[in-house]
């Protein structure tokens, strides 16, 4: 991606975040984003199909560590390796806390649905590799783990990070280990 493209996308990202501080996602228009980003409306559509496309791509960038955790997670890993994955995940979330908090508390964003979809796809593959689940068992186990993961993430963010990155990574490791044993 060239510098100009990066700069334009960053400007669009910043415009959305600035507008999310003032109004809900469903009330934000592409005209407002374009005006705030100081770009032409057509320029927005050169990069994104609509605001939901922007949201999904932005969410993916913000939660990249969380998504990578789901992909890298190996149930045969040592506790230290699992802890490192969780630690890196929560450290990135901590770094982008303000923006993720805005996305999470605005119930008109597709945050929950997109995060759940991303997590389920990745986690289901992991489960298939360790056990021969029936479809209903696979669905149950996937939903169970993803609900816990997203619930813990939401709790940590909504409660304004009551535990340090180290503490939440340790607790997440312990919970995962207890679940898979």
Give a description of the structure:
There is one protein chain. The protein has 181 residues and is mainly alpha-helical. The chain contains 10 helices and no strands. The termini are far apart.
Topology:
Blueprint: H1 3-20, H2 30-37, H3 41-47, H4 51-62, H5 64-72, H6 79-95, H7 97-105, H8 111-130, H9 135-158, H10 165-180
Report the total helices.
10
Biggest sheet record: none
Query: What best-fitting shape do the alpha-carbon axes yield?
Result: elongated
- Helical percentage: over 70%
- What ranges have pLDDT less than 50 throughout 5 or more consecutive residues? none
* Beta-strand share of residues: under 5%
Note the run of SSEs as H and E. Answer: HHHHHHHHHH
Report the span from N to C terminus. 44 Å
Q: Which class of secondary structure composition applies to the elements?
A: mainly alpha
- Using DSSP, what is the number of strands? 0
The whole-number mean of residue pLDDT values reads: 86
Could you give a short description of this structure?
With 181 residues, this protein is an all-alpha fold.
What would the keywords be for this entry?
about 180 residues; mainly alpha; about 0% strand
């Amino acid at each position: 991606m060239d510098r100009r493209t990066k700069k334009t996308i960053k400007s669009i990202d910043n415009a959305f975040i600035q507008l999310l501080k003032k109004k809900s996602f469903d009330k934000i228009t592409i005209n407002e984003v374009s005006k705030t980003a100081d770009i032409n409306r057509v320029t927005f559509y050169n990069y994104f199909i609509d605001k939901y496309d922007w949201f999904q791509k932005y969410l993916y960038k913000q939660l990249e560590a969380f998504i990578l955790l789901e992909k890298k997670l190996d149930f045969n890993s040592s506790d230290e390796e699992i802890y490192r994955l969780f630690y890196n995940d929560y450290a990135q979330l901590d770094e982008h806390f303000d923006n993720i908090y805005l996305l999470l508390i605005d119930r008109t964003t597709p945050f929950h649905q997109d995060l759940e979809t991303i997590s389920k796809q990745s986690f289901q593959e992991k489960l298939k590799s360790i056990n021969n689940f029936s479809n209903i068992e696979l669905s149950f186990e996937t939903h169970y783990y993803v609900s816990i993961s997203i619930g813990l993430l939401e709790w940590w963010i909504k409660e304004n990070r009551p535990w340090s990155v180290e503490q939440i990574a340790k607790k997440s490791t312990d919970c995962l280990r207890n679940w898979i044993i």
